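If you are new to this repository, start here. Below is one unmodified record pulled from the training split, so you can see the exact layout before writing a loader.
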Amino acid sequence: MPATLPRVNDIQFSIRQLRKSPGFALTAILTLALGIGAVTSVFSVVNSVLLTPFAFPDPGRLTMIRETTPGLIWGLEPINAAHYLNWQANARSFSGMAIFQNSSYSISLGTDHPEIVRGLAVEPNFFSVLGVQPALGRSFLPGEDKKGRNQVVVLSWSAWQRYFHGDPGAIGRTMQDGGEPVTVVGVLPADFSFPRVSELPTAISQNQVQSYQIFRPLLIDPNQLDDFGDFNFLAIGRLRAGVTPQQAESELNAIQGGFNQAKKVPVSVTVSVQPLITEVTGNIRPALWLLFAAVGAVLLIGCVNLANLQLARAVYRERELALRAALGAGRDRLLWSSLVDSMVLAAVGGALGILLAFVGVQLFLAAAPRTLPRLAETHVSWPVLLAAAGLSIVTALFFGLLPALRSMRVDPQSALQNSTGRVSSSRESQRTRHLLVAGEVACTLALLIVTGLLLRSFSRLLNQDRDFDSAHVTLMSVYLYSPQYGDEKADSAKLRAAFFDRAIDNISHIPGVQSVATTSELPMAGETWIDDIERPDHALPRGQTPSANIRWVSPGYASTLRIPVVAGRDLQPSDKDHPTNILMSQQAVRAIFPGENPIGKQVFFGGDKGFTVVGILADARINDLKSTANMIYVPYWQNPWWRVHFLVRSRQATSGLAPEMRHAIWKIDPTVAIPVLKPLDEQVSDSVATERFQTLLLTGFGAAALLLALLGVYGVLAYSVSLRQQEFGIRIALGSDKSRLTALVLRQAAWPVLTGAAAGLVLAFAAARWVSSLLYQTQPVDPIAIAGSLILLIAAATLAAVLPARRAASVDPIQVLRNE
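And here is the target side for that same chain:
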């Protein structure tokens, strides 16, 4: 064996030495295990969510296609069907394109009440673009996206197991969708999972957290083939080999530019092409990398502490190393003998850390928000385990390198002649330990400031004025998917309106109910149903008109949510005689009637019918706590949807109301589905689940870093005091009082802490700019977050320094001099 490599007897000797120092060994192993376990857990999530390709053939060639028009505050938007058909006919950068749309299906097998299942309405070639073949049966055929031939369904593997218990005979059988029979023609492979996407990037899809279970052919209404308008669809494309997303985007923009000119599209509609993985993970990517960086910083701080411990421990081994050098051991042997300790500790700590990583991933999945993309795919994989093994080696080298290099500089004659205390208290050794402490203080302060910024941001998000009150309100969603409510029926709108009227009346008679209201969109689900708003008295060119979110609500909506009426009046039941009366939010008024009083004036949207403004509501953050939006509230009888959300204010808890509310609905029609029934407070809380999760995790990492920094400062000072006991004894014998000795030790602690704090501020400013996109109404340079973090760090460092300082001041000079 080459002399430069560690031998078996080196490892055995190292193990014996570590067994003689069980406190040091246990501390080192647990620090490494927790650090490596945490890093491996978070990296498993990062790897599964951000780095692992989708389980499709050549997933890197799959792209999402969106459009954008000037002035949109939400950026990218869904696509127009007419534009898509033009791209599909003329683009050469793609081997295939498919259009699709999120959908909900009311599924039953003829028993009990139906349930709402998430799915996609897709073009027949959707699965071929993905490169996926059904495990059983077939996919959709050309022409099955036409009316009368679309009564077919493809199931996910889990839906097949759930509804047909894995029976291969399910192909050809029927199930009920919205009360109408559909035929099962295919079952997708067990590993098929199409990621969740939303038509609008701003949509908060809390009601879409489950994976897609049902796939049906997409029917495109001819009315949606307008050259400009009805941007309601999503499109996926597979690039040809060798074509980049940028090249494909350029081609589609050229095609769209020609279309805009030929059809005289009033605005410059442009196309965006980006990889599917970017579309799916774009919003969560910065937060996950931030968590990974934070847990990496905690591991780094732990390694610095271990390096300090190793340096202190090396002092007591200097005589041993000097003796070995005097007996002929070369510098390479001394280097390896010192490194072996670190390698043994890292091996044991790394192995335990990998075991903890499996537990950590499960804890992460249990605590993670349900809207985290690709959550079901997260696991500890072999690449992650190999990365963890490599991390163990790197940490061993990191915290063992300085003590190992020190062993190479041992002078046998000097070490054997001098006392351990005098050798170890050299200025160079002290400077090294102080630099290490300064480094961990810098990392800790940077992490604390970033944590403080996110805490400030999250606090402002939760405590801002919302202009609505969610307390004591129960949310219930009802989907009218039965055939009698379908648009094919001539009186379907009247039937839906009659259902709402009866439901409101039934619920209002439940004991304890104070008020009931309905809305067409789920609260806290982002901006949806956005339409252009035109004024007959102030015409603007098409494409330059302001837009607003349209909500169909019942009278009492504002009073149930306690949204202030700023001007005019609220909707009243008597408005049934004037069904075109509407309400506007203040922000919508500023956009549509700048500097004017809109009460009594008319607007047009969604057709030729005019609507009259009768009231102005405050800018309630009912879509999203982070922003307000242009809102228009229309009486529900104007356009009674097949989907409605009831808001019920009552002092009674939701758990007590729920059975009565279900009974009130199902006694009208037992075939309707109730997919959501929960407190509105819970819905609001779910809307900020991602922000809460990352803030809690980062706070935990910050607390761990602070604790490690406290232990680092304490360890270095305690060790320094132990080496200088003779000096302190002499000082006391010569008349120095305790306060002066305490101040001496505190000044010794101040240098690495203040130096590290200065470096930490520089790191924090760089990190704050990196995380600025995650902050809400909080500047990256926030004085309170910075000052609070500094005060916390200095207080912790002072606390860590007080005990060694008091120990130095209580040295017995007689005992010290006698021992010397």
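Two things worth knowing about this chain: The chain has 24 helices and 22 strands. Confidence is low (pLDDT under 50) at residues 419-425.
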